[in-house]
Amino acid sequence: MSTSEFGALAGFKNYLGKAFDEFSISVLKQGPVPKHIGFIMDGNRRFAKARNMAPKEGHFAGFISLKNILEWCLKLGVQAVSVYAFSIDNFNRPKDEVEALMELTKQKVCELSENIDFIENHQLRIRVVGRLELLPTDVKEMMYQVNKKTENNKGPVLNICIPYLSTDEISTAVSKIAFKLNKKEIKKNELNEQLIETTLASIADCPSLDLLVRTSGETRLSNFMLWQVSRGALVKFTSVNWPEFSFSTLLGIILDYQLTKLGFV
After folding, report:
1. Which residues contact 186 (CB under 8 A, 6 or more apart)?
2. pTM for the structure as a whole
3. Does residue 265 have a pLDDT over 90?
4. Whole-angstrom Cα distance, residue 256 to residue 213?
5. Would you say 204 and 250 are in contact if contact means Cβ atoms under 8 Å apart?
6. Beta bridge pairs of residue 235
7. Is 195 part of a structural domain of the chain?
8. Predicted confidence (pLDDT) per residue in 49-59, tens digit
9. Which of 108, 58, 22, 91 is nearest to 215 (CA)?
10. How does residue 264 score in pLDDT terms, banded at 50, 70 and 90?
């Protein structure tokens, strides 16, 4: 086979793949689609280790996967996507890995926010959720800029949780409520679970969490969106590592979600 023939065949296969994806999305949209999906993006380091790559290369592959998955979710009509990008506990990892991940995060989040066509077409709002004061100064300033740049957009929301722990998010919400109570901005009879839920940063101005997905075969929540999961979200675990998360993986998970919602599971 000549080079030109090989190129034509590869192009045709790519066309068929995209056509299948678009058809599958149109079919899925006929059933219940989760309004808010959370992802615990696990397996970047396992992916890298299996290929004798440096951990930062695995994280790089993970960011490519995030962009693809975000695009698929938006095409499906998902209104909010929350991703666990970095736990507060991850600061305990080796210093060189943390520094490399911080630099890569700054670079990739900045690239995403500067993809004007993508942002404007979807009216995407990017929100960085977590203890931003714990980040290196340059990363923190860039995250604030990203929050500001898209805050007036009216479309779907991408919550990038970094550095984040669910217990920290809950305690921060309770502290905010206590402050407002002390200032008499709210009354004691207004204290309830709904007030706490609407104060949580990751679901402020977002639909309640419907579906939580964790990759890499681990079957724990790792202190991510615990309150939100307790309110009835479906939790799905998949054995694939985050950089290997494909459209077919998402397709299977959404089908399971729809079967559950329709009472077949």
Report:
1. 177, 180, 195
2. 0.91
3. no
4. 12
5. no
6. 212
7. yes
8. 999 999 889 99
9. 58
10. confident
* The pLDDT of residue 2 is above 80: no
Cβ(110)–Cβ(142) under 8 Å? yes
Q: How does strand 125-129 pair with strand 80-84?
A: unpaired
Question: Is 17 part of any domain?
Answer: no
At residue 41, what is the residue type? Answer: M
Q: Is residue 1 part of a domain?
A: no
The CATH number linked to 111 is 3.40.1180.10
Using CA atoms, how far apart are residues 90 and 37, in angstroms rounded to an integer?
23
Q: CA-to-CA distance for 62 and 43, rounded, in angstroms?
A: 9
Matching residue, tokens 């979710």: 73
Kindly write down the DSSP assignment for every residue of the chain, as one continuous string.
Answer: --HHHHHHHHHHHHHHHHHHHHHHHHHHTTS---SEEEEE---HHHHHHHTT--HHHHHHHHHHHHHHHHHHHHHHT-SEEEEE--BGGGGGS-HHHHHHHHHHHHHHHHHHHT-HHHHHHHT-EEEEES-GGGS-HHHHHHHHHHHHHHTT--S-EEEEE-SB-HHHHHHHHHHHHHHHHHTTSS-GGG-SHHHHHHH-GGGTTSPPP-EEEE-TT----TTSSHHHHHTT-EEEE-SS-GGG--HHHHHHHHHHHHHHHTT--
The answer to the question of residue 221 being in a domain is: yes
Tell me the per-residue pLDDT of 50-85, one tens digit each, with 9 for 90 and over: 999 998 899 999 999 999 999 999 999 999 999 999
Domain that holds residue 217: 33-261
Structure token pair of residue 206: 């977002």
Count structural domains, the chain. Answer: 1
Range in 16-25, 122-131, 202-211 with the lowest mean pLDDT: 16-25
Please state the length of the chain: 265
